[in-house]
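Listing S7. Sequence submitted for prediction.
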Amino acid sequence: MNQSAAGQLQKLCEIVAKLRGPGGCPWDREQTHESLLPALIEEAYEVMEAARANDDAHLREELGDLLLLIVMHAEIARETRRFDIEEVIRDVSDKLVRRHPHVFGTSDARDPGAVLKQWEAIKRAEKKTDSHYLASLPKALPALMRAQKAQSKAARVNFDWTEVRDVVAKVEEELGEMKEAIASQGRERTEDEIGDVLFAVVNLARKCSIDAESALQSATGKFVNRFNRLEDELRRRGKRLGDVDLPEMDEIWNEIKKTPNVQCSAPNI
């Protein structure tokens, strides 16, 4: 970090300290680690959205919002003398050096696979209280992301399918078991088998080097756009959602699928 950046970070920390200090902002002063968590998650997703859109101005803004929350958490901890932002920065810097011996040390790991295995080995050595390899897998992650992370970590210790076709076969196998469960009308078994199908599909995405969370976001976005166009077409016909039967909507939907997924018209306000 150059002197200018360090100065800007210091300025941000001072602003946050003033906002939370006597005579500061009532809203900022009442915040806690717990109360800030929803905003932290929301801002992380907004950073992701801006990055995917390749919108530099928006990404810069959202990174700033995320950084603000990090500084807020550090300031709350500083006020109770638990730790401060300097310790946060020092800890992550030390960890990066420690876990990159191929850059800062004498390790000969060079390709990404070897580097990831080395990272996991160092991480496990640091967290000696973890009794199992996947013990450090965060439980708070979104389900698709957690599934993919679990599968990726398992793959690093060679627990992985050899070929993509093997994963496809597993998906088909799980689909068959899901159909049997649905036919049996057992809710608990059906839920279990649907979960297995989702897990297998996430594994297929991973094996194809596709991020499952991103793929589902794109598919959902495509569905929303097409559904908006369906609604626009119904309005053009003088009709509205809820008053049209499925065959007519299917007819419109199939026509929409034949055309580019353009943005729908703005709704009337």
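Caption to Listing S7: primary sequence and predicted structure tokens for the chain studied. The mean pLDDT is 92. The first helix runs from residue 3 to 20.
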